[in-house]
Amino acid sequence: MRSSPPDVDLVVKHYHRDESTGALTERKRLFLRVGDEVTHLHYEAWGLGVVMEVMTSSVPGGTCLARVRFQDGQLRCFNNDLDNETCCYYFGVRRYWNASHGVDAMRSRFFLRG
Known about the structure:
Blueprint: H1 6-12, E1 15-17, E2 24-26, E3 37-40, E4 49-56, E5 64-70, E6 75-79, E7 93-95, H2 99-110
Antiparallel strand pairs: 1-2, 3-4, 3-7, 4-5, 5-6
């Protein structure tokens, strides 16, 4: 018996068959989830950011994006697939682990405008 080449095994492991439709769907390793607080290592002037939306394509090989609203008022879109070399993690986006520091300031700034 011959085994499949290693490249084929790497590709196949990310796909699984949907039980209800029988279609192949791709599993992605997501870095960010809605509500996560983030910072950027190279752009401190942006301030803290909150992940507002995560979009994952249902098409195999499609993109996976995260929209982040930063304190400077800008909404920025990043690739959110850790298996992709253009993932936002590799460009300096990091989760903000001291969640008690900026939560109230962020909520009042973005959600409780009078």
